[in-house]
């Protein structure tokens, strides 16, 4: 039996109730060692969400927030830290660059160690800068050096659009044709996700012509967690650089970028790392490249801090990813990121991952319990989970496909105070986040999903 299902059913036996009963959720919440972390976030109220209808939300005050895969909740300390910097600016002006708890001239440096812990890297391998797509471009400018023989970039067919566009434009920038140089991996016919053996087989067959592999850590649409270690080993064995867009992986799953030997990576911080919309992004380069891969574009923030302000226009380039910095970082973006990273520092990714596997497994169990396809009653609406069922192949997100029109279900969920998101053509992404979601959130979501499906299935005007 699936380990998560075994936990749920064992709890039900202890409580002498159905595995689908709310008592099971309460039982699991009471034993959740991380439940106190929720109190450090601001959870939107149902009556504050624009599409909600309080009469349909079953009396809940706080919304069911399962949209951390798109935008994480606000840490309570974010506003305090931002206000501190506004006050410092008002009172000390330019002196804020060098005084206070987070001097503006190096504020991001003070929290890079916290971020490095989350991605499994050394602090000197991580920089907080720019936005995700900017960082991907900056990294590819240095790692993608195509030749007539080795000019391809391997990525998944349904990569996040920004990644696809970045790769496409980098190929064009070098004078190559994306039709020839973009190698897109597609799932097998009739399947939703890529098999690891197929990825490794493609690398083995095409590796001599591949310059760079750029994969997601967690695929945004399907929620599939790729075997980053295996992909890295296979790519490097064929002489390819291997990099990852970790936007949906950072703060979601355990990462060991340094130990895996990943060449480079980048990520945003506003999803599972809760830094706010457009928050400060991160980038990583393995220490083995610290003195051999240098930035194609240079700015003064890549200059050694000790000599930066001599302003002699003689570059004293910092080694590794630090040398890729271009400009000083916006202090108002550093503040919410610091607030979130401090919460992460109160636990570990291993502990968060342990809870996440059970939390998402509980969601999967209840969906299958209530909404599996019934061959004896084909008129009954059902839900298909396209995310891999193996917990080792997914993060906290489940991508759901419905037998009834998905837009109608999504709108009905919004009316009931559920925050999740829909992605074309036919997927609802639901992400119970271990930092702030509870097992009771999952149970309540299942109840609301039932009423949403029922409402969406009714003929118009009935």
From TrEMBL:
It is found in: Cytoplasm. One of its GO terms (molecular function) is kynureninase activity. The keyword Cytoplasm applies. One of its GO terms (cellular component) is cytoplasm. Catalyzes the cleavage of L-kynurenine (L-Kyn) and L-3-hydroxykynurenine (L-3OHKyn) into anthranilic acid (AA) and 3-hydroxyanthranilic acid (3-OHAA), respectively. Has a preference for the L-3-hydroxy form. Also has cysteine-conjugate-beta-lyase activity. Its EC number is 3.7.1.3. Keywords: Acetylation, Cytoplasm, Hydrolase, Pyridine nucleotide biosynthesis, Pyridoxal phosphate. Its cofactor is pyridoxal 5'-phosphate. Homodimer. Its main location: cytoplasm. The modification N6-(pyridoxal phosphate)lysine is found at residue 271. This is Kynureninase. GO terms for biological process: 'de novo' NAD+ biosynthetic process from L-tryptophan; anthranilate metabolic process; L-kynurenine catabolic process; L-tryptophan catabolic process to kynurenine; quinolinate biosynthetic process. Pathway: Amino-acid degradation; L-kynurenine degradation; L-alanine and anthranilate from L-kynurenine: step 1/1; Cofactor biosynthesis; NAD(+) biosynthesis; quinolinate from L-kynurenine: step 2/3. Pfam families: KYNU_C. InterPro entries: Kynureninase, PyrdxlP-dep_Trfase, PyrdxlP-dep_Trfase_major, PyrdxlP-dep_Trfase_small. Gene3D superfamilies: Aspartate Aminotransferase, domain 1, Type I PLP-dependent aspartate aminotransferase-like (Major domain). Pyridoxal 5'-phosphate binds at residues 132-133, 160-163, 216, 245, 248, 270, 300, 328. It catalyses: L-kynurenine + H2O = anthranilate + L-alanine + H(+); 3-hydroxy-L-kynurenine + H2O = 3-hydroxyanthranilate + L-alanine + H(+). Belongs to the kynureninase family.
């Amino acid at each position: 039996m699936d380990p998560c299902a075994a936990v749920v059913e064992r709890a039900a036996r202890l409580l002498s109730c159905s595995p689908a009963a709310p008592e099971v959720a309460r039982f699991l919440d009471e034993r959740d060692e991380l439940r106190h972390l929720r109190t450090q976030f601001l959870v939107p109220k149902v009556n504050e969400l624009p599409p909600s209808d309080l009469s349909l939300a079953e009396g809940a005050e706080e919304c069911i927030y399962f949209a951390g895969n798109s935008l994480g909740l606000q840490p309570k300390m974010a506003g305090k830290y931002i206000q501190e910097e506004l006050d410092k600016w008002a009172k000390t002006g330019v002196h804020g660059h060098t005084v206070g708890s987070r001097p503006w001239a190096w504020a991001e440096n003070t929290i890079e160690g916290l971020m490095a812990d989350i991605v499994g890297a050394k602090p000197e391998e991580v920089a907080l800068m720019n936005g995700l797509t900017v960082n991907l471009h900056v990294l590819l400018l240095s790692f993608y050096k195509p030749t007539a023989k080795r000019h391809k970039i391997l990525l998944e067919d349904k990569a996040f659009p920004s990644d696809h566009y970045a790769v496409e434009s980098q190929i064009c920038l070098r004078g190559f044709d994306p039709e020839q140089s973009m190698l897109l991996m597609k799932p097998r016919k009739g399947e939703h996700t890529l098999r690891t053996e197929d990825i490794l087989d493609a690398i083995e067959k095409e590796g001599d012509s591949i310059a760079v592999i750029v994969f997601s850590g967690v695929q945004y649409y399907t929620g599939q967690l790729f075997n980053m270690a295996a992909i890295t080993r296979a790519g490097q064995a064929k002489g390819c650089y291997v990099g990852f867009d970790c936007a949906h992986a950072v703060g979601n799953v355990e990462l060991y970028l340094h130990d895996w030997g990943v060449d480079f990576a980048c990520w945003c911080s506003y999803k599972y790392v809760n830094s706010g919309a457009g928050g400060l992004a991160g980038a990583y380069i393995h220490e083995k490249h610290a003195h051999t891969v240098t930035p194609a574009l240079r700015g003064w923030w890549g200059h050694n801090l000790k000599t930066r302000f001599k302003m002699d226009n003689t570059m004293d380039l910092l080694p590794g990813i630090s040398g890729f910095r271009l400009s000083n970082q916006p202090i108002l973006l550093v503040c919410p990121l610091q607030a979130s990273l401090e919460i992460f520092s109160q636990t570990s990714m291993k502990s968060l991952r342990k809870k996440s596997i059970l939390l998402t497994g509980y969601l999967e169990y209840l969906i299958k319990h209530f909404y599996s396809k019934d061959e004896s009653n084909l008129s009954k609406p059902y839900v298909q989970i396209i995310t891999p069922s193996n917990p080792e192949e997914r993060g906290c997100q489940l991508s759901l496909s419905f037998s009834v029109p998905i837009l109608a279900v999504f709108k009905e969920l919004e009316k009931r105070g559920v925050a999740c998101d829909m992605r074309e053509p036919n997927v609802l992404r639901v992400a119970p986040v271990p930092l702030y979601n509870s097992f009771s959130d999952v149970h309540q979501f299942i109840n609301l999903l039932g009423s949403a499906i029922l409402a969406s299935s009714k003929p118009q005007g009935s």
